[in-house]
Amino acid sequence: MSLFTSFNAGVSGLQASQAGINTAAHNLANTKTTGYTRQQNILRDTYYNTLKVTTKGMQQIGYGTSVAAVRQIRDIFLDKEYRVEVSRQKFYEEQVTTSEEIEDIMGELEGVEFQNSLQDVWDALQTVSIDPQSIVNRELLISKAQSFVNTAKDVYQTLMNYQVNLNTEIVSQVEAINSIGEKILALNQIISRAEASGVENANDYRDARNQLMDELAEYTYYTYNEDERGNVNIYIGNAPFVTDAKSYHMGVDRIKTEEYNPATQKYEVTSVSEMYNVVWRDNGYSDVYDLETAYSAKRMTDTGSLLGILTARGNGVAKYTDIPQKPNKADYTDDAGNFDETGYYLALNDYNDDLKTYNNTTGNSIITKIQAQFDQLIHGLVTMINDAFCPNISQDLTGVTGVDANGNAFTGDGKYKILDVINCAVGTDDDTTIGTELFSRKAVDRYQVITLTGQVYGTDADGNRIPLAQEVTDADGNVSYKLYVYNEEKEDDLNNLYTLMNLQINPKVTEDYALLPVKLNPELGETGGYNTAVFEKILSNWNEKFAVLDPNNETSYTYAEYYRSMVTELGAQGSTWKSMVDNQEKLTQSVEDKRQQVMGVSTEEEMTDLLKYQHAYNAASRYISVIDAMLEHLITRLG
Questions:
Q1: How is residue 529 annotated by DSSP?
Q2: Confidence (pTM)
């Protein structure tokens, strides 16, 4: 080995030590920099010169050392774990926020405001039941009923407004995600160019990219991989988000409802919601997220704040018909006691299908679940009260003909619900009006009144023959018969439903309180008396169990219990989510602590490295000085 070769080896030692000092100093300078990853020099032998090879071995001379790479000290598995856990934390934070907002809308955790309105109706009914003759009492009932409907509609409308107002946050997060994608693409290109020669690693740019990927995980869950050129390819679901060549963009569209039209054999848009859905704009995919399937930890769909908002909001405004009702065996048993087993089990299969749909849609969203439950309470209460004032019976009207109020012909075909003109209460007006409901639908009357040319008869529950139409005599002594056919609620037609979106106090009653049916029916041989049995029935039914909160649980509640249980369950669900968020925060922090143990900068370690490289530098310097002295001695002596 020549002295010049030794001299070069010493120089390489100086250079390697200097590089080590620079890296340690860079680490110390970025101790507090968010997202910075500790760097480390990897040294390698420069090369060897083989002098002699024998069967026993070989003689080589080394030519020093060099920096092979300045690597980042990161654990990719901890990175992926952190991004999953922080994404899940953000999802449940949105559920907690939404549940708290709903509690505020309801009034208080115990539902004080609406509960008071509900209690006022109960108190007014009790007051009228004691003295139905009192005009003041009846006017008070109508006033409290009006207040009850207004308060309920305010709650329901506020829930709908909250759903729509979430559009602002959805747009904000979509824009943030798109911005992150563009920045990652730009860093991909910088890193790819910088590392193309294989000489250096663009570590600081990689830190910036990793920081962006951490931020992206808060908004949405994604998968990713790094190609051989250093580009990170990111996928959200199965759709590409960032590739080596392009950053794809999300957008928002209003949610559309489509139905299949047999005539055109195409799906056609039937309604457009004010609420936004998140879609892909430019990668050939449609919806970003599947909102028709319940969120699941197993499928990683309980992740990301954006999906958290969409899940909590739901896909539309829910109503009572969205809660499936389990078929009742009694409805499949005829008057003779014969049970239609086939019909019952077909209905049960349909119910199970509806239950699955409910769990994946309405029941999967805290807002739509509350909307459906709240609407079910209002629907149940108003129809119960209406049915007491205007009781219906089921009768076979096959072959019965007549004319409705618009002059349209009516021909009966099968069983219909009709007003029980014998046992119903009547108004206190001069005409003793029947069939006036307290709560009404905006566009549909309670009954279709059919004028008949003669009386028709049916049978009551005991098999007795009863008249089905009201006999009416006009001022000229002409007699006609009026059949009150109930306009059934139709699930596919909002106008036919007693839902909060379509509910009001009957305008006829507000204009003339005398139309409220509170007097005994003259058909029963009573004149002038008041029908207290109507109010006794309402008050009795008020304390009867009428519906379940959750179709997955068969526990049913009375009207008095239902609202309190609904709000209590909401609070319990919010508390559960809050516990999940707390646990996720701890888990996320635990993973982050592990990450920092690997990638974080320790000032003590870096100071130790500085001293180590300083000593190495000094040693290489002294080595070079010795070689220099030897060269000088040889040149001087041989000169």
A1: -
A2: 0.86
